[in-house]
Amino acid sequence: xxxxxxxxxxxxxxxxxxxxxxxxxxxxxxxxxxxxxxxxxxxxxxxxxxxxxxxxxxxxxxxxxxxxxxxxxxxxxxxxxxxxxxxxxxxxxxxxxxxxxxxxxxxxxxxxxx
Amino acid sequence: xxxxxxxxxxxxxxxxxxxxxxxxxxxxxxxxxxxxxxxxxxxxxxxxxxxxxxxxxxxxxxxxxxxxxxxxxxxxxxxxxxxxxxxxxxxxxxxxxxxxxxxxxxxxxxxx
Lengths: 114, 112
Prior knowledge:
The complex is a heterodimer. Helix content of chain A is 0%, strand content 54%. By secondary structure, chain A is mostly beta strands. Chain B has strands spanning 4-7, 10-13, 19-25, 31-37, 43-51, 54-57, 64-66, 76-78, 87-94, 102-103, 107-111. The A-B interface holds A 4, 6, 9, 33, 35, 37, 43-45, 47, 50, 52, 91, 95-97, 99-107 and B 31, 33, 35, 40-45, 48, 50, 58, 88, 90, 92, 97-103, 105-106.
């Protein structure tokens, strides 16, 4: 069975600080897909990134970056120079090729204070 | 605009009542899913579908029924609502398992 763990329930930082959100996953598949979603206070779920298990290159998109390490089964998300608008719940999720479902972590509530 | 449409946005039910949460997508996605979100538990899969006429149970299917008669629609039925079903419900669709899912705006359901 697949599982996603986000050990950080809540994180609070001051604006302009860098922050890393941790994600650890478990799966028996050799091919799988990892995702990050953002849920702002308005409640919608916003897709941020997808990474497949064969691509371990780190990715950077503006202030966002993702570090995928198969050796430690981790897919961590870093926000550089955080802003108040980054305040949200962030979910890590896993999809195996054998199924048609996303398994979500419990989420990390990020609060960026001015 | 293309996307996933959920109705209603808010609903209050009395214990024992039944209702259907509607979900429609206009992106011709084969994969559709229903999740419920509860505090501290992330999103948990209720039921999913890989195409018209094909559905399967997810992690927490008890108390819910689904059907998929068309590619566009995937309604979720609560046959006899219970307070434990108080939650926020999200419908999602995707072109494939490896694509990111598009989520609806959610339905906040309260059962009293």
